[in-house]
Amino acid sequence: MQLYSTNNKELRVSFKDAVFNSLPEDKGLYMPENIPTLDAYFIQNLSRYTFQDIAFRVASALIGDSLPTSDLRRIIDDAIDFEAPVRPLDSGLAVLELFHGPSLAFKDFGARFMSRVMAALSHADERVLDVLVATSGDTGGAVALGFLGVPGTRVTILYPKGKVSPVQELQLTTNGQNIRAVEINGTFDDCQALVKEAFNDPELKAALRLTSANSINIARLIPQTFYYFYAYAQLQIQGLDEVVFSVPSGNFGNIGAGLLACKMGLPVKQFIAATNVNDTVPRFLQNGRYEPRPSVQTLANAMDVGNPSNWVRIMDIFDNDPEALKRLVSSYTVTDAETREAIRLLFDRYGYVACPHTAIAWQAADWYRAEHAGSYATVFLSTAHPCKFPEVFPDDIATRISIPSQVSQLEGREKQARPMDVDFGAFKRYLLDVS
Asked: Which residues are known to be catalytic?
């Protein structure tokens, strides 16, 4: 498997180089040189395969001979050891639940797969691998648990002070071992900028073996395609074959993976990019101008991204043709007030308790269904367990939330985080001082 930079398609690197370097030197993002099309028989008969079988087939097509077949199968079976069920709510509406992994968020798929890929590609004589990750909420917890105790790795997680939920913060800051947390006095965009600057700093690159665990890393993106194929397999069992996916979107890695799956042959009628008021992409689809803004804090903190990193990948999939993109991608912006109302409506109509991100995806799907009549299935993605956001829910809904053991085990554990201003010099010294 060869990959190129979105800024220079003549630049080619191996899968291993892309995984460990994360960002090309020209500051683009890596994309597969060729996106394979899966054979029609496989797509038409997805319902005959297990989730792991589907994941292995998709990963094999993308990764090729970059990993031995036996290693890839072992990685899949170990990393994807939990379900992603599609739960019908009415005859044309269903929710794809992606929060059944260790950190109770969809990012477990990417983090667990990536950590095991990195371990398989590493050699015992190589330097410690320093994994840098910026999080707006759920990425950090998934990466922490995905890499916890993995030999030869050291993880540094940057998160914005006061802008993650209490449960998310405990998942980030109470692990110890090879996991470190840095509490940045700023926004997620500030955290992301510090990570990107670290990758482009010559002194750090010479002193440390740096890689990223954000969705800018291709090894995070690939496994997120798996559950789109598996969701379609479950719809086939129900006799449905035309689907619209509504995806809560912040850094746009999740919907980017869905579009990659579509490019590989998954038949999708439409994607809905559901955002909170950090609406850079909805504005672009309306007026054709891509104008990032500083991120704004909302109830759906994992989506508080003003300049989505993965947007360049999405444009690359469509050969930078906005009109082609608009034919497959719709977008809606949901305010905090509308998010609270969506949480209430989901509960009152279906008895379903949804986290703020999930509620945004449902609200966008509901608006789309009102505007587009048809017999298609609408699937909205549930990306996090509601227990991670207890302060959002009114009492009658909060009492219906079950607390998984992963959360109850966090109680009483001590927070360990290094406070820091938005100062690259200080962050650089921190990385070098503890190397």
From this structure: 107
DSSP state of 185: S
Place of tokens 């482009």: 200
Q: DSSP string of 124-165? A: TTSPPEEEEEE-SSHHHHHHHHHHTT-TTEEEEEEEETT-S-
Backbone φ, ψ for residue 395 (5° rounding): -55, -40
280 with 291: CB under 8 angstroms? yes
SS (H, E, C) 282-296: HHHHHHCCCCCCCCC
- As assigned by CATH, the class of the 65-102+221-405 domain is alpha beta
Taking phi first (over 0 means left), then psi (-120 to 50 degrees means alpha), and beta for anything else, what does residue 134 get? beta
- Structure tokens that stand for 27 in this block: 């500051």
Of residues 381, 394, 216, the one with CA closest to residue 308: 216
Beta carbons of 279 and 333 less than 8 angstroms apart: yes
Q: Domain ranges for the chain, please list them.
A: 65-102+221-405
Alpha-carbon distance values, 215 to 14, 55, 252, 387 (Å): 18, 18, 9, 24
Q: Which amino acid is at 407?
A: V
Strand partners, 32: 3
The single-letter code of the amino acid at 220 is R
DSSP state of 26: T
- Closest-CA residue to 196 (of 307, 293, 86): 307
CA dist., res. 374 & res. 376, Å (int): 6
Q: What is the DSSP letter of 333?
A: E
Among the residues of 318-355, which ranges form H helices?
A: 322-328, 336-350
Residue with tokens 């002070």: 161
Model's pTM, two decimal places? 0.91
Give the percent of the chain with pLDDT over 90.
79
What gap in Å lies between CA 396 and CA 385, rounded to an integer? Answer: 17
φ, ψ for residue 252, nearest 5 deg: 65, 25
Q: Specify burial of residue 119 (Cβ count, 10 A radius: 0-12, 13-18, 19+).
A: middle
pLDDT digits (tens, 9 = 90+) for 318-343: 999 999 999 999 999 999 999 999 99
